[in-house]
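Worked example 3 (structure in, sequence out).
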């Protein structure tokens, strides 16, 4: 009999696929507009802009050191799911530009769309016991240990990252980008509540 308070393997598989797919789509929106974001993805985006390297390989490489933290603090299953989600997202961002393009996308609306899509993607991954690595692992750990919301931890990290972004992008671009990042973090802060969602 299936435990109603736990996700099945099939449910986890679709959750990881959806979360990674939507997160990759969010990055396509972001990079199409030349915007930036926070968290580990934001760091990978900035490195990609500065070096010309592809986002996917950079994002995958940045996350490698964090798997040890995830394994030690969050367990083997969480780390495995996160590795799968990060790998899938990294690969998808390499292929998606061949599958979707934008004839016209308003930067402000694009930032809002990125924030909404990415926020929902992260919520799905969190609820299936995964993350997109990096600061997300640290944020979830702090929430589990102290109750300090994961979204707020990421908001603090983002503030520092956006200061760096000002050296690589103009002020209007960074300001529009901040709107998207704010939406991502508010979605997580408001919706990621274990007392309202019990399945793991």
């Amino acid at each position: 009999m299936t435990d109603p308070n736990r996700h099945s393997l099939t449910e986890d598989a679709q959750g990881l696929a959806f979360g990674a797919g939507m997160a990759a789509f969010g990055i396509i929106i972001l990079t199409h507009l030349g915007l930036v974001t926070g968290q580990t993805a934001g760091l990978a985006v900035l490195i990609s802009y500065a070096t010309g390297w592809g986002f996917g390989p950079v994002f995958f490489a940045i996350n490698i050191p964090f798997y040890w933290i995830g394994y030690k603090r969050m367990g083997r299953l969480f780390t495995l799911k996160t590795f799968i989600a990060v790998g899938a997202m990294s690969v998808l961002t390499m292929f998606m530009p061949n599958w979707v393009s934008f004839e016209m996308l308003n930067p402000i609306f694009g930032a809002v769309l990125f924030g909404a899509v990415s926020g929902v993607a992260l919520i799905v991954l969190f609820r299936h016991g995964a993350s997109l690595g990096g600061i997300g692992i640290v944020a979830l750990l702090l929430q589990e240990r102290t109750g300090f919301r994961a979204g707020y931890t990421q908001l603090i990290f983002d503030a520092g990252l956006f200061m760096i972004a000002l050296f690589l992008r103009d002020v209007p671009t960074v300001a529009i980008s901040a709107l998207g990042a704010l939406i991502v973090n508010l979605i997580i802060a408001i919706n990621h509540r274990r007392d309202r969602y019990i399945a793991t």
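Notes: The two ends are 17 Å apart (CA to CA). Residues 34-96+111-191 form one domain.
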